[in-house]
Specification:
Strand content: 15-25%
Largest sheet: 7 strands, mixed
Helix content: 40-55%
Oligomer: single chain
Shape: globular
Number of domains: 4
Distance between the termini: 69 Å
Number of helices: 27
Number of strands: 18
Strand order of the largest sheet: 10-9-12-13-1-2-11
Radius of gyration: 30 Å
Length: about 700
C-alpha cells in the first residue's frame, strides 16, 4: 500500500510512503547481495598532510571494518602515485600503519579507477568507491587532472546500463567544496558527502559510509502522469520520498515501484488517514532547506508536532530521536546560512553545508551515537521487549475497585500543564506517568559518573506528567530567542513551573499508587536515561545508584510544608522500590548493592571513583537501618579525608591507614539523635554526630 500526505509548508510538497509487501524476504535478498555482490573500494589520500593522527585513525577504522565484515575489500592509496595492490585484509595483518608523505595528484587515482572499471567491466556487480582526501591537487587547473577527469567520465558514460557505480566522498581539513561535490556525481548513481575538521571524526565517517553502502537500496517510482522519482531505503520496510512542489496526487490511484533488481510492483495510492507524528517527522527529515526562511518554517512546523501521541512505545522512542535530530540540524542550518551572508564566505562553511544536506541519510542508517555503545544496546532491548504490550497488560488488569481507589486520589495529584489528574492520566494512556519537576545542572561527566555529573539546583512544587514535560521541553528549546547548537548535556533551556520563579529541566516520577509504580518500573530506563543524559536511550545501571544521591540533595532542600512532605514520601517510595527490587541496582558495577555490603562488612572499597557517602546513607535511611551504616560511613569518611589531604604519601603509608580503618573494630559508635523511632536526622554539634 502507498499513502501520501500534504505538508503544510509554503512549497506544498507531498510525502509518499510505500509499505513493502515482504520485508523479510526483501531483507534476505539484499543482505545476500551486500555480502557477496557489492564491491567496495576505499581510495585513501596518503599525502604528507595526512601524516600522524589522520592516517592512524583511518587505518584503525579500516582494520575494524575488516574485523567486523571479514570481507577483503580493496584499498587504493594515493599521493603523487597510486598503489592498487592493498586490501583491508593486508592492512589488518600489518603491524604498522600506512605511511603518509609527498604531494597530491588526483590524476593518478582517477586514472587507476578508470583502469579498474575497464578491467572489471564484465563482472556485472555494483561498485562503490569511498573516496577520501584532505587536500587539493598540486596542479588544480593542470592538463593532467582535467584529462583524467574527462577520461573517467567518458568511461562511466558508457556504463549506464551496467550495475550502479557510486562515488561517496569524505573530505577532511582544507579541501574544495565544489571539487568534492563534483566527484560524488561521477558515478551512474549520485553518492554522498561527509566532511570533518577533526581527524578523530574520520573513523565515524568511514563507518557511516560503509554501513550505508552495505545496506542501501535504491528504488524508482513512476506515476501514471509520467513523473518519475528515486528514493533510497535502508530498513527494507518502507520507502518514503517527497514529490515536487504542487503535485496533485488526488487524481492518481496507483504507482509503480521498481527496485534495484529491476523487479516491478504496482501499489494502490490513497491519502494517508492515520497521520501520526512519525509520518510528519519522516517527511520533514527529507527536506533540505535552501535559505534561512525555509529553516524557520520547518522549525515552526516542528514545534506543532506532538511527539508523545505515538501508536506504540517503540514508535514513540523513534519519534523522539528523529525530532531531536531534525531540531539540531535546523539549528546548524541556521548558523551556516547566517555565515553565508558574509562578504568572504570561508570554504569550511560551504563544506559543512554540503555535508549537512546528507546528514539525514546517515541518521537513518544508524541513529547518531551521542553517548556510547550502551545507547545501541538499549535500543536493541527496547525493540525486542514488548513494552507497549506489558504496559497495556497492566492497565487492562486493573480491577474496578482499584480504579475507584485511584479516583479517590484525584484531588492530590494533578498535572500542572494538562490539568489532568492521576485517574485521567492512567485511564487515558498506559505509558504516561506523573512526576515532580526539578531544576538540575549536568556536565559531560554525567555519562560515566552520573552521581557526580548531575547537580540539583532547585526542587519545585510542580507536579507534571512525563508527556507534558517532554512536549514542553521541545517547545521551550525551539522558542528560544538565540538559536544555538545544543550539543552539551547542560542545555540552556527549561519550562516554567507552577510558581512564577520556578524552572524545570528534569523530572522524577512519584509513586502515588501501586499500579502507577508498575509503569514507573517498566519505564525506568526511559526516564532515567533522559534525566541523566537528555536521551531516552541513554540508560545505564549506575543511574539507579546516582538517583539516591539526587534524593539526598532533595531532602537537603526540603521545606516543612505539608505538600513537600507528601511529595518526598512518594519519591522515597520509588527509590526504596529500586534498591529492594531492581536488578540494575543490585548488579551495578560501582556503588550499588555489592559496594554497600562491602561497606557494612568493613571491607576496603577499590574504585577509580570516590564513593559518594550520601549513597550508603540513603540506602540505610530507606531500609530503616541507619544505625548499622553510620559507623562504616564514618570510617570511610576518615579514609577519604586522609587521602584527600595527603595524596602524595607512599603506598605503604596509605596501606597502614586502610588497615587502621578497616582492620580493627570501632570501640565507640557515633550517636544518632531522634525525637521518635523514625529515621529523621536532627542537627547536633557533638563530635560523634555523623
Amino acid at each position: 500500500m502507498a499513502t501520501y500526505l500534504k505538508l503544510r509548508l509554503s512549497n506544498q510538497q507531498n510525502y509518499v510512503e510505500i509499505k513493502l509487501s515482504h520485508p523479510e524476504e526483501t531483507y534476505n535478498t539484499t543482505a545476500a547481495a551486500a555480502g557477496g555482490d557489492l564491491d567496495i573500494i576505499c581510495c585513501v589520500d596518503v599525502s604528507g598532510s595526512m601524516s600522524g593522527s589522520p592516517i592512524n585513525n583511518v587505518c584503525e577504522v579500516l582494520r575494524d571494518i575488516y574485523q567486523r565484515t571479514q570481507k577483503d575489500y580493496r584499498l587504493f592509496t594515493y599521493n603523487t602515485q597510486t598503489d592498487v595492490k592493498r586490501t583491508l585484509k593486508t592492512l589488518s595483518e600489518r603491524n604498522d600503519n600506512l605511511q603518509a608523505s609527498g604531494g597530491t595528484s588526483f590524476a593518478c587515482i582517477f586514472t587507476a579507477i578508470k583502469d579498474y572499471l575497464l578491467q572489471n567491466a564484465s563482472a556485472k556487480k555494483p561498485i562503490t568507491f569511498i573516496f577520501m582526501t584532505d587536500g587539493q591537487d598540486n596542479e588544480p587547473n593542470g592538463p593532467a587532472l582535467q584529462k583524467s577527469v574527462q577520461m573517467l567520465k567518458l568511461m562511466l558514460s558508457g556504463m549506464t546500463n551496467s550495475p550502479p557505480i557510486t562515488f561517496h566522498v569524505i573530505g577532511f581539513g582544507e579541501v574544495n567544496d565544489a571539487f568534492l561535490n563534483q566527484i560524488r556525481t561521477f558515478g551512474t548513481r549520485q553518492g554522498l558527502f561527509r566532511y570533518s575538521t577533526e581527524s578523530k571524526e574520520l573513523q565515524n565517517n568511514f563507518n557511516d559510509m560503509f554501513e550505508y553502502a552495505l545496506n542501501v537500496r535504491q528504488f524508482t517510482i513512476k506515476f501514471p502522469n509520467g513523473k518519475t522519482y528515486t528514493a533510497n531505503n535502508i530498513d527494507n520496510e518502507t520507502v518514503g520520498f517527497l514529490t515536487n512542489d504542487g503535485d496533485d496526487l488526488s487524481a492518481m490511484a496507483e504507482l509503480t515501484l521498481i527496485d534495484d533488481k529491476t523487479t516491478t510492483t504496482q501499489f494502490p495510492l490513497a491519502p494517508m488517514k492515520d497521520i501520526r507524528a512519525i509520518h510528519l517527522l519522516h517527511a520533514l527529515n527529507l527536506i533540505q532547506p535552501e535559505n534561512e526562511e525555509q529553516v524557520k518554517s520547518i522549525q515552526t512546523y516542528l514545534n506543532d508536532i506532538q511527539i508523545t501521541n505515538s501508536k506504540n512505545f517503540a514508535e514513540r522512542l523513534e519519534t523522539e530521536q528523529i525530532y531531536k535530530e531534525i531540531d539540531q540540524r535546523m539549528m546548524e542550518y541556521r548558523q551556516l546560512f547566517t555565515q553565508l551572508k558574509m562578504t568572504q564566505v570561508p570554504e569550511r562553511v560551504k563544506l559543512q553545508l554540503s555535508a549537512l544536506r546528507h546528514d539525514p541519510i546517515f541518521a537513518n542508517t544508524q541513529r547518531k551515537k551521542k553517548l556510547d555503545l550502551r545507547v545501541y544496546k538499549n535500543v536493541d532491548y527496547f525493540k525486542k521487549t514488548n513494552i507497549s504490550g506489558i504496559l497495556q497488560g497492566y492497565k487492562d488488569s486493573i480491577t474496578s475497585d482499584t480504579w475507584q481507589k485511584i479516583q479517590e486520589q484525584k484531588q492530590n495529584w494533578v498535572d500542572t500543564y494538562s490539568k489532568e489528574d492521576i485517574y485521567e492520566i492512567m485511564r487515558k494512556s498506559s505509558d504516561n506517568i506523573l512526576c515532580l519537576g526539578i531544576f538540575v545542572q549536568r556536565d559531560e561527566e554525567v555519562i560515566n559518573n552520573p552521581a557526580k555529573g548531575l547537580k540539583l539546583l532547585k526542587v519545585t512544587n510542580t507536579i507534571i506528567s512525563y508527556d507534558s514535560f517532554i512536549n514542553g521541553m521541545n517547545l521551550a528549546k525551539n522558542n528560544q530567542q538565540v538559536q544555538g547548537q545544543f550539543t552539551t548535556l547542560n542545555d540552556l533551556y527549561s519550562i516554567a513551573g507552577a510558581l512564577a520563579d520556578e524552572q524545570i529541566n528534569a523530572v522524577i516520577p512519584l509513586y502515588i499508587n501501586d499500579e502507577h509504580m508498575k509503569r514507573i518500573r517498566i519505564l525506568e530506563g526511559i526516564w532515567l536515561g533522559y534525566l541523566y543524559t537528555l536521551d531516552s536511550y541513554g540508560y545505564d545501571k549506575q543511574q539507579e545508584v546516582a538517583l539516591l544521591k539526587l534524593l539526598y540533595e532533595i531532602i537537603q532542600q526540603r521545606t516543612n510544608t505539608q505538600r513537600q512532605k507528601q511529595v518526598l514520601i512518594e519519591l522515597e517510595k520509588v527509590c526504596r522500590f529500586i534498591i529492594d527490587e531492581s536488578q540494575g541496582f543490585k548488579t551495578a558495577e560501582q556503588f550499588g548493592e555489592k559496594t554497600y555490603e562491602k561497606l557494612l562488612k568493613r571491607l576496603p572499597i577499590a574504585s577509580t571513583q570516590e564513593y559518594d557517602l550520601s549513597i550508603p546513607l540513603m540506602i540505610g535511611y530507606l531500609r530503616n537501618d541507619l544505625t548499622s551504616v553510620l559507623v562504616p560511613i564514618y570510617y570511610e569518611y576518615l579514609r577519604q579525608e586522609y587521602l584527600r589531604k595527603y595524596p602524595k604519601n607512599s603506598a605503604t603509608v596509605k596501606t597502614i591507614v586502610e588497615n587502621l580503618v578497616y582492620g580493627c573494630d570501632a570501640k565507640h559508635s557515633p550517636t544518632v539523635f531522634s525525637t521518635n523511632n523514625s529515621n529523621t536526622l536532627i542537627n547536633n554539634n557533638l563530635p560523634d554526630y555523623v
